[in-house]
Amino acid sequence: MDIAQAATKDIAITIAAAQSTSVALDVAANVHTHQRFVQAAADHGVQWLVFPELSLTGYELAAMPRLVLHADHGLLAPLREAAQRTGMAITVGAPVESGSALPSIGAITLRPDGRHSTYRKFHLHEGEKEFSTPGQEPMHTQQLGATCIASAICADTNQPIHAARAAQAGARVYAAGILTSDTGYAAEAPLWRAYAQEHRMVVLISNHGGPSGGYVSAGKSCIWNTVGYPIAASARRGDWLVIAKPAPQARF
């Protein structure tokens, strides 16, 4: 696993993107990979760790109904324990219940205090609508200490209104798990940079490290500071931990 890290005065906690590679349909194997990332993140003092979209299953849309997970699922016990042991909030990607026939694409956050939460992807790509139900909550924020973090999932970040709602909700960090190719990344990265600049939020993008669901991921997980500068980024595909730490002079 490669590490990229930098300090910034724009945050009060240490955050990281886990650019992990998923094994299709194998939750247990992916949990094991997530544990490796959590331990590496803990070694670097990370307090909030964000994994890619559908990181626990791979981007396997047609299989989502039989892969539905929730925060208290037995397969996630090692990650719940890791959150409590390390004092780290961990956001993972998985299919989740929606209340409808089709599941939602979810971001499950396991917190060190034992409380957990789930965000359901609000904006879907056209090809996802056959397999997934959009979430009913247009914005989801959480606090860690004095820091407000807004969750996003892939296509959410293509919609400027989503980032604007995050800023209106008081988010200092806009954190998204995604799956995007080189072509998609080239089109989307200017948006992420613009959100950081316009809304004065740190923007964290966690992309897959390898192929998933028929897509060749670009990698390039990145964290932008509040002037839109990429302070830490993976240099290529593969397993990377991309970390942003508070600068010593940060004041909040």
The parts where pLDDT drops under 50 for at least 5 residues are: none
**Assembly type of the shown chains?**
single chain
- Largest beta sheet, briefly? 7 strands, mixed
**Which architecture does the CATH hierarchy give at level 2?**
4-Layer Sandwich
CATH topology: Nitrilase/N-carbamoyl-D-aminoacid amidohydrolase
- State the CATH class: Alpha Beta
Strand arrangement in the largest pleated sheet: 1-13-2-3-4-5-6
Fraction of residues in helices?
10-25%
Plain-language structure description:
The chain is α/β, with parallel strands linked by helices and 252 residues long. The chain has a single domain (2-246), classed as 4-Layer Sandwich (Nitrilase/N-carbamoyl-D-aminoacid amidohydrolase). The protein has helices at residues 27-43, 77-86, 160-168, 182-199; strands at residues 2-8, 15-19, 48-50, 89-96, 104-110, 116-120, 141-144, 147-153, 173-177, 202-206, 222-224, 230-233, 240-246. Strand 9, helix 4 and strand 10 form a beta-alpha-beta unit. It is globular.
